[in-house]
Amino acid sequence: MTRVTKWALAAAVLAVALIVALLPRGGDDTAAKPSGDLAPARSAAALQPCPAAGAAQPVKQLEGVTADCLGDGGSVDVGKALAGAPALVNVWASWCQPCRTELPVLQEYAKQPGAVRVLGVQVQSPAKDGLDLLAKLGVHLPSVFDGDGQTGPVRAALKVPSSLPASYLVTAGGEVRFIANPRSFVNTDQVRAAVEGAS
Question: How confident is the model at residue 26 (pLDDT cuts 50, 70, 90)?
Fold first, then answer.
């Protein structure tokens, strides 16, 4: 390679780098207005409202833990929202195949008489992907978004295992119990038995 060719190649690389550096960054705009971008997906998903903070003592393991409500983007104090009555907390991600089977089962369980409250926690996947999946599955359970990275405040507080889905029973007294058997629900009888067994 001649000296002139090397200089021409170097100049071309610098020119391309300069052009890339000057291009507008689409990611900055979307980060500045996430709620506007998610409005159509939220409308299509039509999720039930996230639980509001009650007067009972917060769930100790989740005290001070906040997450965004997937349905409207508002902040949810998870420890206060789950206080005072039993609840089933289900941690899921949009890429998780067993979650896709389990979410409709949890939706069906939540409609049954005597069912405890169910709260979904979307993790490790973009909020829009979660909303699109829930809309596709016809699942309208109240859900919070715990971030799309490898960790989030809810996951950290619950010590969620790496394999998903993961479910927890929060008792009326504020105890949090991991449901190990079964790890994934395929029918409402399993959900009901697991809730009763962990109560």
Answer: very low
Q: Is residue 12 classed exposed, middle or buried when 0-12, 13-18 and 19+ CB atoms within 10 A define those classes?
A: exposed
Quick check: pTM over 0.85? no
Radius of gyration of the chain (CA): 22
Query: Is the pLDDT confidence value at 101 over 60?
Result: yes
Domain encompassing residue 57: 39-198
Q: pLDDT tens digit string along 47-83?
A: 999 999 988 999 999 999 999 999 999 999 999 999 9
**Residue 122 maps to a domain:** yes
In a domain, 130, yes or no: yes
As for how many domains the chain has, the answer is 1
**CA angle, corner 63, sides to 60 and 68, nearest 5?**
140
